[in-house]
Write a structure and sequence with these properties.
The chain is an alpha/beta fold. It has helices at 16-25, 47-52, 54-72, 74-77, 88-113, 191-202, 222-234, 327-341, 370-375, 391-395, 424-436, 441-446, 456-464; strands spanning 4-10, 30-34, 116-119, 121-125, 129-133, 139-149, 153-155, 168-169, 183-187, 206-211, 238-241, 244-251, 254-261, 264-270, 272-275, 279-281, 314-316, 355-357, 362-367, 380-386, 402-408, 414-421. The protein starts with a strand and ends in a 15-residue tail after the last helix.
């Protein structure tokens, strides 16, 4: 038996590495197991989010947006920039450097906090033991007082479009294109599909998005989803709803995708196809059959409200358990679990987790949609404010979008905040804070918001809930 630890974390993604650092900070002897190997054959930390997810995709989104902005909008600002071009290879190189810097940063944080980094694949054994298989096949067993499973998730593959290197790729492959494909098909109009479709559309690809569901972004408030669909279509994304992919053929280095829609059987030819239909929990070979930890039919680990499994001392967090597959949700669960292990009181408010789509403009939301609240029998009142009426948005040449607040008609408590606009991902923090502290729409309306800022849109939306907005005409009778 090798060393014994107070806490062993399996997975060094945004849930696992945060949990490991927190545990070490609280004085617990901690190890973190990670198997991710980069192109140089070196084990790196950060998981999907840092290596092939959140961070690299945002690097590409930012570069491609700046390119379009310089090409199409600088003249309106009085800036002459003729002949603007994008260097895709340089864009990809910059993305890789950012990833390298951040993965190295996590390794440095492990050292600084005294976390033992174990390289290899972790497997939970009975009696709170963890077997680590290194990349040469050698096995070492460690014992722990507590185990935190943070193994993350992997992209879902679908039988009609099996992955084919260089032609049909998942989200990871879509971050490595050496040039913009002329015709790009994206299967799935969710967060990942829209973000990656946006990147390559800006770089010159003709992008078609095939979505099996008939509604666009059903998890977003209908008013915001409608605006997002309109703006993305204006940017060149051909979004086909109710289009269910049934098969594909590869002919002469092209992909012919077959799908059915309201008009029957269809097919379309692409140079490359991105499959972005969601992710599934990674539990392959993770648990010994005698451990006693329960999985549901989709492979998620059963946990309680504080992420404890059915085995005392074993916890699971992040994409491998219920709830949204979001990096920040995983991180906060990691902090909660470790605080509990250390004997502190901790809980997490799952009703106040923000979601963001990093298109341009960004889409961000927290809490209930107006439609969801009404379906639950809640009488609501709402307030909206368009960025077209914001002085700062005008100055930024970014007047598209709106902020919307949903409040309980009886108590005035904020139930949800939905934003589409420049920096919506930053602005949504106001909504998260409001939900976390049980704020009313009046509370948000009474806050003094700096001028001129985009955050004034949220303030004005709160005022509009009761017909008191200052910078737009109110449709509601004032109280």
């Amino acid at each position: 038996m090798a060393d014994k630890f107070d806490v062993i974390v399996i997975g060094a993604g945004p849930g696992g590495y945060v949990a490991a650092i927190r545990a070490a900070q609280l004085g617990l002897k901690t190890a973190c197991v990670e198997k991710w190997v980069n192109k140089e054959g070196k084990v790196v930390h950060g998981g999907t989010c840092l290596n092939v997810g959140c961070i690299p995709s945002k690097a590409l989104l930012e570069t491609s947006h700046k390119y379009v902005e310089a090409r199409d909008e600088f003249a309106e600002l009085g800036i002459k920039a003729d002949g603007v071009e994008i260097d895709v290879a340089k864009m990809i190189e910059r993305k890789a450097q950012i990833v390298k810097n951040l993965t190295g940063g996590i390794s440095g944080l492990f050292k600084a906090n005294g976390v033992t980094a174990l390289e290899g694949t972790g497997k939970v054994l009975p009696n709170k033991q963890v077997e680590v298989t290194d990349h040469d096949g050698g096995k070492t067993t460690y014992e722990a007082e507590n185990i935190v499973i943070a193994s993350g998730s992997v992209p879902v593959e679908i039988p009609p479009t099996p992955l084919t290197e260089g032609l049909i790729v998942d989200s990871t492959g879509a971050l490595e294109f050496e040039e913009a494909p002329k015709r790009l098909g994206v299967i799935g109009a969710g967060v990942i599909g829209l973000e990656l479709g946006s990147v390559w559309s800006r770089c010159g690809s003709e992008v078609t998005v095939l979505e099996a569901v008939d509604s666009f972004l059903p998890m977003v408030d209908a008013a915001v989803a409608k605006e997002a669909q309109k703006l993305l279509k204006k940017q060149g994304l051909d979004i086909k709803l109710g289009a269910r992919v049934t098969g594909s053929d590869i002919k002469d280095s092209e992909v012919v995708v077959k799908y059915t829609d309201a008009n029957g059987e269809q097919e379309q030819t692409f140079d490359k196809v991105i499959v972005a239909v969601g992710r599934r929990p990674y539990t392959q070979s993770l648990l010994d059959s005698d451990v006693g930890i329960n999985l549901d039919e989709r492979g998620f680990i059963h946990v309680d409200d504080q992420c404890a499994t059915s085995v005392p001392g074993v916890y699971a967090i992040g994409d491998v358990v219920r709830g949204p597959m979001l990096a920040h949700k995983a991180s906060e669960e990691g902090v909660m679990v470790v605080d509990i292990i250390a004997g502190h009181k901790a809980e997490m408010n799952y009703d106040a987790i923000p979601s963001i789509i990093y298109t341009f403009p960004e889409v961000a939301w927290v809490g209930k949609t107006e439609q969801q609240a009404k379906s639950e029998g809640i009488e609501v009142k709402t307030g909206s404010f368009p960025f077209a009426a914001s002085g700062r948005a005008m100055a930024n040449n970014a007047t598209e979008g709106l902020a919307k607040i949903i409040a309980d008609a009886e108590t005035d408590r904020v139930l949800g905040v939905h934003i589409i606009g420049q920096h919506a991902g930053e602005l949504i923090a106001q909504g998260v804070t409001a939900l976390e502290f049980g704020a009313s729409a009046e509370d948000l309306a009474l806050i003094c918001t700096a001028h001129p800022t985009l955050s004034e849109a949220v303030h004005e939306a709160a005022l509009a809930v009761d017909g008191h907005a200052i910078h737009i005409a109110n449709r509601k009778k004032r109280k």
